Every structure is written in C-alpha cells, then in structure tokens.
Predict the 3D structure of the following.
Amino acid sequence: MGLFLHQVLAGIATGGIYACMGLAVVMIYQAIDHLNFAQGEMAMFSTFVAWQLIQWGTPYWIAFLATVAISFAAGVAIDRIVFKPIHGAPVLSHVVVFIAMLSIFNSGAGYIWDYQIKTFPSPFGSGDLFGQNLVSRHDAGMIAVTLMMLMALYFFFRHTRIGLAMRAAAASPDSARLAGIRVGWMVALGWGMAAAIGAVAGMMIAPVVFLEPNMMVSILLYGFAGAVLGGLTSPGGAVLGGFAVGVIENLAATYIPGAGRELKLTIALFIIVAVLIFKPGGLFGRHVVSRV
Amino acid sequence: MPALLEARGLHAGYGQTKVLHGLDFQVEQGRTTTLLGANGAGKTTTLRAICGLIRPLGEVRLGGERIDRLAAEDIVRRGVGHVPDGRGTFLELTVEENLRLGAYTRRDKQGVARDFEHVFGYFPRLKERLRQQAGTLSGGEQQMLAVGRAMMLRPRLMLLDEPSFGLAPMVVEEMFGIFGTLNRRERMSMLIVEQNAALALALADHAYLIETGSLVMAGSANEVGGDENIRRSYLGY
C-alpha cells in the first residue's frame, strides 16, 4: 500500500509537468490549429536561462519569476516575428518552421551552455516530506506549483475579460473580430502564456531529469500523450490527461514485470496510438465537424 | 445632415472574383434600410465590406468618417453591430459569455449590466438559458442571442444578414416585430439584408435592390414594393 501510494503521488508530480506541457501545446493548437513540436525545446531553453541567472547569483525565486517573464516575452515575439507572417500557410510550412525552431533552440542551447549534463537546484530541498518515504519534498513542491498555476489559469480563462476574449478568438476568429477582439494579439498572448507555462514545467522537472539540451524530448512526448488522451480541443482534458499519463507511467513501471525504466517511454507512445485508434477526439475533446 | 452610413462606388470581392461593382447607397439616422436581392447577388458581401471583414474599394463613411480602410475590430469600436450570416454565435460558450462578448469593447460596467436587463426585456428566453452552452439552443433562440449580442454593443448602426434564414414562420414574425420596436422605440438605425422581400419591405423605410453586384433600384419601401417588376420577381403576386 505504501509503495502504491508513493508511486501514485510521484506519478501526480511528474504528471503535473506533463499536464503543463500538454496544456501549452493545446493552447497553441487552439490558437493556430497546429501542434508546436518545439514547445519542449522552448521550455528547455527557458530552463537554461533560469540556470544562468542562478549561476550569476540571482536568488532562486527571483530567477524563477524573471525566467517566466522572459519566456512570456519570447513567446509573444516568436508569434509576431515567425508565425504571424506565415498565418494561413499550409500545414507543411508550419511543420517545417516548428522543426527549424526545435533544432535552433536545441543547438543554440548546446552552443551557449554545451551538452554536458548540469544539476539544477530544487527550491524545496531534497529528502522526504514527513519522513515516511511517501512523497519527496521536491515532488510535493512540484505538485503545489503546478496546481497553483493551473488554478490561476482556470480563473483567468473563466473569469476575466481577456481570458474570455482569448477563448472566443480561438473558437471563432471572424466572430471574435466582429465583437471587437484583436484576434492577432490574443494569439500572441497565447504563445506568451504557453512559453511561460513551459518554462515553469522545465524549471520544475530539471532537478529530476537534469539539465541538458535534450532534457525535454521525452517530457514533451508525455505531454503530447496527455493532450491526445484528454483531447487536443480541451485544455481541461489535456491537463487531466497529463496527470493520468504520469500516474499510468509510474504504476506500469512498478507493477508490470519487465516494463521497468526502459519501456516507460513506449507507454506514452502506446497511449497516443491507442487513443487515436479508439477515440480520436480524446476523452474530453469535441468532435470537430467542418462544413464543406 | 449627412447620412449615418454612406457608401460610394463600393467594389468588393474575394481574391480574383469581383462580387460588387460599384454600389452607392445610404442608411439614414434612425431609419431602417433594406437591401434586397436573390441568392448570390452580393448582399452578404456588401455587409462584409461595410464591417471590415473584407477590404473594399471605394468609400464607406459612418457619420461622415471614412471607415473603409479600418480593420473589423476598429469598425466595431465605432458602433457598428453585426448579426452576420450564420449568426456568429460562439457555440462552445454560454449564453451569458456570448452576451458579455457583445459588450467587449465597452468600458462602462454599469451600463453593460443595465443592458443585460434591456436585452432580457426583449428576449426573456435568454435569461432562462443564461448558463447554457449556446450550441444547445434552438435555431430561434440562437437568432435571439445573435441579435441580443449585437444590442449589447449599443450600436449606432445594426447590420442584419438574413435574419429570417432557417427560422420557423412564427419566430420570424416575432423577430421582425422586435426589429420594428427597436427602430421605433429606440430609434435604432438598421441595414437589413433579406431574401424575403415582403417581410423586409413591410419593416423598412428605404429599399435597394441588388442584382449580380449592382444596384438596379432604389427608393422608399413603398415605391420599391409597388413596382411591377419587383412584385412579380420578388414578391410573387
């Protein structure tokens, strides 16, 4: 029982990170109808920025907030400079640009900070919370941070004027313009927020997976799995999907003989393929019917 | 006094396809004007050109100010409410959120709160459905929501694109009754595009007839409705 509970809590902790990455992907997908393959690399780059700030002697939480702000601004800039001009371009053009960004951020980080694995500090300390081998201090902190962020986002989208405008712009851009909403800026805001969410996820997971240019590759894959499981059209579904994938992954690695560490990533891919075959819209997604 | 809306030499289209070939028309303050025409004549395109969803050539003035170079978002801010083709409802959002979006550009919170009640006065059904997803409403209720949303802007000019389309006759009658009340009681200026000529002519002060992108007749609703050709082609008697 203790082992089970421990694995579930650890799964929720990493699941929160997948949920954040899934949510970031879904936000951009809602805004521009394309999957951002570079979301993980953007988060990784943000994490390196945080690491650099901390190396320069900035206190952790100040570096944390500064990184979130920098990432937000960078996300807005990426939309304005790169994606606004190719708005309406075919899917393949977008795919190529996403792959280009992925490789630019990846090799850029490698060039600036090299490929050697670095440790990243945890603000919550190491060791167990309550000292019962139930949940580590970092896992508990990670759960708290992601839950607080997700609740703040929920409040923002449900109860603020701009949040409502962003939802309207994603649902129906032309109608949103007729309501006076500046749809282009709502998309840019979405990019900024997605980048900021990714930055938080990167900084939270870096103490666990260590910092290096490829650290987010598998994390993003889990994020995709969570988003597909919950439904790419449903931000709430993507978040729940992310948590579910985190817990499933941990339990499978613990209880399925032979699954172990090596096959963990296969589980994410298995979930993606299975969901796409049996419930292509995801658990909470809506069926998109386009009028011809 | 200049007309509230004035279009001169209005050309518009989609890419290579030209739909409008130089329209001249106007909507007077406090009056109801209708633009009649068959399917594909260019009625919806005319409204899209006025509200900035497509960029026209020629001149469009609202209260004397040129608006033909402005973006849709800025034309709304000058008080042009639009009930578009297909109603433009945000189906995933609730009725309340849809109405709130109608007042998105307004900053007077108390006025907006009052206008919720104002809209419910005309459409009590919307109040009952406030927390419901707009996509679950019936066709008639969705049209009420679309008109209610445009009213939340407190528009100087309301553009209505085929408000009778796809609705049961009873509902159509109710809707047009409300348009009449809005025009008489609140002096709301309206430009109504309709295929149902009898309905529109009964409501409107002025009428224009558009055929394949050009205006072929203009005048008071009575004159246009009394015309022999109109009667035969559009009113069917």
Remarks:
- The longest helix of chain A spans residues 2-32.
- Chain A touches chain B at residues 161, 164-165, 167-168, 171-172, 174-183, 286 (CB under 8 Å).
- Chain A has a mean pLDDT of 90.
